[in-house]
Predict the 3D structure of the following.
Amino acid sequence: MSVCEENVSGNRMTALEFFARELRRARETAGMSQAQLATAIVGYSASFVAMVETARRVPKPDFAQRCDQLFSTDGILARLAEDLVCRDMPPEWVGQWLSIEGNATSLLSYQPLVVPGLLQTESYAREVIATSGREFAVEEQVEARLERQGILSRLNPPMLVAVMDEGVLRRPVGGAKVMEEQITRLLEMAEHPRILIQIVPFAAGAYAGLAGPFVIATTDDRDVVYVDSAFSGDTTKRSEDVATMRRLWEAVRAEALPKRKSIDLMAKVAETWT
């Protein structure tokens, strides 16, 4: 049985339970309450600490790192957060990808089905998550997704190039009001100097990107590819895999409209949702 499997025998803890126990031990050894811990590390609420300590919320890498610094635990909590978190948790909660995305200087994102998570409105995100077919705590994951979007508003945000299929704009996710709000958000974000949104029109017909969504994150020293699926989100740094996805990215962008034509198309489709 893996560390991520359910404890059916009662003799083993899940990865989340193990992390929760170690965090609780460190906090109690330091003589701190959950509220005091939240205040000390800044940026997290006492309720977030409580959920982590009861294995109801997966710890974020930043949270684990701050706790390590506070408790002088030599990085053990950060390593646990990255290595023991279940692979089938929501992407927002997967420590490895969160860390990569948070440190990226550029993000090349392709989505043939839905708006990328970093650009979703709250209502759109809620509908996508609620109808995903996965047993997630919807409101918690919506909150996590919105928090994750903070990387786009920080002082030195990554360059985000988001390519989407035209079908993303026309699929009625949550109804007309949700779609109008979502496309309006895309139009606003498209004017950001470090965000480029391009649309692959229906006229492109069949093209390589229809195989599925992916993201290529560039950090200071390497490229990492993230590929989502119905079961889990997988990352790879293998040079062969990265090279393959780079070629796929170039093929997809070759089918996309340039910036201004993409904005014109988004504005035109937005009118159909009013």
Notes: Confidence is low (pLDDT under 50) at residues 1-11.
